[in-house]
Amino acid sequence: MRTATARRSLAAAAVALTATLTGTVPAAADSSAADECKPVSRNEYIADRWQDLGATNGWLGCPINTTKNITVGGVWKGKRQTFENGQITWSPSQGTQMVIAAWEWRGYAFADWGTSAPYSNDRFLLRYYSSHEPRGEQRELRGGTSGRAWVQKRTTGSYRFIVEGCDNGTFGSTCRQGWTLSASTR
Questions:
Q1: Which of 34, 80, 81, 104 has its CA 20 to 30 A from that of 185?
Q2: Residues 105-108: contacts with CB within 8 Å, 24+ apart?
């Protein structure tokens, strides 16, 4: 759902309807007001990923809150911002610029993550949870420093994603940086 685009379409339809009913075209409204968002995160990695995903007209839409600190057991771990259609979470333990974004579109839940630099992984593990899969499901995906995956939704509820980078070794695999903080669809 691309909310800002929908708002612009509704505004254009309203102008056309007014012109048809009254025979006059109303003065141009300040369309920037409909497109304005609350400030996106001051965290450059969250802000950059939001821009990469289309900003106001993208997959996530406008921010609906400010960036929140995430603590686990009283220890600071990262930051998260919630948007109209999902979340972006900065998880620096898995790479100083590692962010994971999640959103929904047309019956699918999407996760987009990266960059895990300076770490490059042989593969990623993607785990996702929903009310339909409360214990979660896991997929193994190609490695590198980033990735994107989607799952067909089986519930009307939200999905929560976490990612872990792993390397193959002589005696099995090693996943040194652990799981990212989670990002959820709306």
A1: 34
A2: 105/1, 105/59, 107/152, 107/153, 108/150, 108/151, 108/152, 108/153
DSSP 11-76: HHHHHHHHHHHHSSPPPPP-HHHHH--SPPPSSHHHHHHHHHTTGGGSSS-SBSS--EEEEETTEE
Give 64-86 pLDDT, tens digit per residue.
998 999 999 999 999 999 999 99
Instruction: Look at the block and give the residue holding tokens 């929904």.
Output: 104
Phi, psi at 83, each rounded to 5°: -120, 175
Non-local CB neighbours of 69 within 8 Å, separated by 6+ positions: 76, 78, 79
d(CA 24, CA 31): 19
- Asked whether the predicted pLDDT for residue 19 surpasses 90, the reply is no
Specify the DSSP element, H or E, that contains 7.
Answer: helix 3-22
**Which H, E and C letters describe 97-110, residue by residue?**
CCEEEEEEECCEEE
User: Which pTM was predicted?
Assistant: 0.78
Nearest to 87 by CA among 159, 163, 144, 142: 159
